[in-house]
Amino acid sequence: MTANPPVPLPPGLEDSLGWLLAQCFRAYGAANTQAVAGIPHGHRGYQALSGAAHCSARNQAELARQLGVDRTVMVYLVDDLATAGLVERIADPKDRRSRLIRATPEGQRQLDATQTAIQDAEAAVLAPLAPAEREQFRAMLRTLASHYIATAGEPANVCEVVAQLNK
Q1: Rounded distance between C-alpha atoms, residue 141 and residue 148, angstroms
Q2: Kind and range of the H or E element at 122?
Q3: Kind of pairing, strands 95-103 and 87-92?
Q4: CA angle 79, 84, 86 (to 5 degrees)
C-alpha cells in the first residue's frame, strides 16, 4: 500500500465508469510506454510479438482479428517486426498461400525482457491495492473481457470503435 492518502475525486465523476477507466488507462499507458519502447509500434507491436511467440493465431489475418487491427495495418506491423528481427514469416505447411508469424529467438528474448518491464510497471500502477485486491481486480477484468468477447464475437476493430465514439 502507498503511504499517500487518495485525493478526492471530482464531484460528479466519482461514479462514472468511463472516467474511472480512463484515469486507470492513462496511468497504465504512461507506465507501460517505457516498457515497450524497444519494440516497433510500441504496445501494438508488443501484442503482435506476444501473439507470434505464443502461437495464438494461425496466420497474420487471424492475428489481426485477435488484436482488432485492420489487415492492411497488420502487414506493416509484421513487416516492421520482421525487419527488427523479432518475428519471421514461415510458409504454412497446410496452406502454401498462408504464412505463419512466429517469434525469432531474438524476438523471444525481447518479449521476455519487455514482459518483466511491464510487470514492474503494472505493479507500480496497482500499488495502491493490497495483493489480494490486485488479484481480485484482475479476475474481475478477465470476467468482463471474456463476457465481451463471448457476446460481441470478434474483437472490435480499434479504428471503428474510435470512429463510433467520435460521432
Answers
A1: 10
A2: helix 105-125
A3: antiparallel
A4: 90
| C-alpha separations of 40 from 45, 87, 101 in Å | 6, 11, 16
CA distances (Å), origin 152, targets 99, 156, 157, 160 = 27, 8, 12, 14
pLDDT single digits (tens) 123-145: 999 999 999 999 999 999 999 98
Is the pTM higher than 0.85?
A: no
Burial class (CB in 10 A: 0-12, 13-18, 19+), 142: exposed
* Whether the Cβ atoms of residue 125 and residue 30 lie closer than 8 Å to each other: no
Largest CA distance in the chain: 60
Residue 39 sits at φ, ψ, to 5 deg, of: -115, 130
Radius of gyration of the chain (CA): 18
CA 65, 66, 72, 78 dihedral sign is negative
